[in-house]
Write a structure and sequence with these properties.
Helix content is about 65%, strand content about 0%. It contains 16 helices and no strands. Helix 1 crosses helix 8, helix 5 (about 85-95) packs antiparallel against helix 6 (about 100-110) and helix 9 packs antiparallel against helix 10.
């Protein structure tokens, strides 16, 4: 199995039987491959305009008055699946500084969308890092785009795991116990966010920071660049934002496999990466040479 899917394999093993229906990664995937999710339902949030009653309650979730926000969340919960268009605002309400609003929002999600609630509850309520990892993967791999309302919550857990991992001191008991589970949670969060395809402004802002020089690690930086490359897709305006990050990654990151693959997918938009890619064709690492050759060919033929 390619080392690029090792984190996915570990995370899937942690998730257990709940993810048994998810296809296993191919035996020898390319770095640019994206794990397949179960059938992606079209999120209710993105399908139709909000019902006026739902829209009114969503607006009240932004009220300065705490009790108004609580009552709005409770009312949305009472509407059940009819309030599916409020899934994102309810997830956003879980950032509320008031714990009572957060609890009301989570309870509302349980009634509005039980499928979203189950993994979300693991992520925000369970103290076990392994269980949080399971919840994060379920949000991404099983729900796909339907899990997009929870993108910011996944990001929050990922950032917390990064902070906790950075605080660990090597060769200590805490390091030996917590480093690997925290790493698995970070990797699972990146996978989930890719599957979700988050458009959340804060998720994108943080990903751009993680993709830049000064990122916590080369691995985190490359995964952030990969996320942004997929977010850019074939949209020229987005590719212009991401291309400089890819180019910097090609220059700074040792064995930048994911950056090379992303540059190749960008075609003409990756033209500024050609000088660096041609240098990487002379790398002492065989996989780097192979990927760089493929990327150069794709860009030159685009």
């Amino acid at each position: 199995m390619s080392r690029w899917f090792a984190p996915l394999a570990v995370a899937l093993s942690l998730a257990g039987p709940a993810l048994a229906q998810v296809p296993k990664p191919p035996a020898d995937p390319k770095p640019a491959d994206k794990p397949k999710t179960a059938d992606k339902p079209k999120p209710a949030d993105k399908a139709d305009p909000l019902d006026p009653a739902v829209a009114d309650l969503v607006e009240k979730l932004k009220s300065k008055d705490t009790q108004t926000r609580i009552r709005a969340a409770e009312a949305l919960g009472e509407m059940g699946p009819a309030a599916a268009g409020a899934r994102k605002p309810l997830c956003d309400a879980m950032k509320d500084l008031s714990g009572s609003v957060t609890v009301a929002a989570l309870r509302a999600i349980e009634k509005v969308d039980p499928d979203l609630y189950k993994p979300l509850a693991l992520v925000v309520l369970d103290p076990s890092t392994a269980k949080q990892c399971q919840g994060v993967l379920e949000l991404g791999l099983l729900l796909g785009e339907k899990g997009e309302p929870a993108g910011y919550i996944v990001l929050t857990r990922m950032k917390a795991a990064m902070t906790a991992r950075a605080a660990l001191r090597p060769r200590t008991a805490a390091y030996n116990i917590h480093y690997e589970p925290l790493t698995n949670l970070i990797d699972a969060s990146f996978i989930a966010l890719r599957m979700i395809g988050s458009e959340d402004a804060e998720v994108l802002r943080v990903m751009k920071l993680l993709a830049a020089a000064g990122s916590p690690s080369a691995g985190v930086r490359e995964k952030a660049i990969e996320f942004l490359a997929e977010w850019a897709g074939d949209k020229d305006d987005r590719r212009k934002q991401v291309a400089p990050l890819i180019r910097a990654g090609l220059k700074d990151i040792p064995r930048p496999y994911l950056c090379i693959a992303a540059a190749g997918r960008f075609g003409k938009a990756g033209k500024d990466c050609l000088p660096l890619l041609r240098q990487l064709k002379l790398s002492g690492d065989e996989e780097t040479r192979r990927l760089a050759t493929e990327a150069v060919d794709k860009i030159e033929k685009s």
